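Deviation from plan, reported transparently: zinc ion complex.
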Amino acid sequence: MTEPSISSIKPLTRQASIKMEIEAENRIVDNTVVDNRTKRVLAELQKHWINEYHNSREKALVELTERLHQEFLSDQQKIRTELLQQFKEELEQTRNDLDVKYRDQLKNENSKLTEKHRRELSDIKKKQWCCQCENEAIYHCCWNTAYCSVECQQNHWQLHRKTCRRRKNNSSN
Ligand SMILES: [Zn+2]
Ligand SMILES: [Zn+2]
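Because the crystal trials were delayed, the predicted structure below was used instead.
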């Protein structure tokens, strides 16, 4: 078996290489044409995509802004409601505190007044009153009989003489 000599391969290789070069050149020409067409299509596609991108970005921004605005409004409403609720609770609490305070004060005041009234009543009960004119008495005659003045005692004497115990006691003594 004899191997093919290099000289026998060379022409074939050279031929093939020339053919390939031509094909490659043709392809380059085609590619150039294709490239230009592709570039135009790509450029248009790019333009279209950029437009689409801008449009959808614009739309997304508008939607986002709207959503944020709605969220802001609802947050604000929520905060306002919460503040109002808190304010109501504090007001209620303050009113309850004041009610308790005033009720206590009133109770205190009432018991003080009751005590004062009781004491005054007691003092009044201890006092004696003139049998003639019903002023406070300072002269005591006998049981349940007193006078504010000698004058009253003398004026009352006509009536009192029948029941005066001092006189009876004095007379019996
Ligand atoms: Zn009197
Ligand atoms: Zn008397």
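The CA atoms of residues 2 and 97 lie 121 Å apart. We consider this an acceptable substitute for the interim report.
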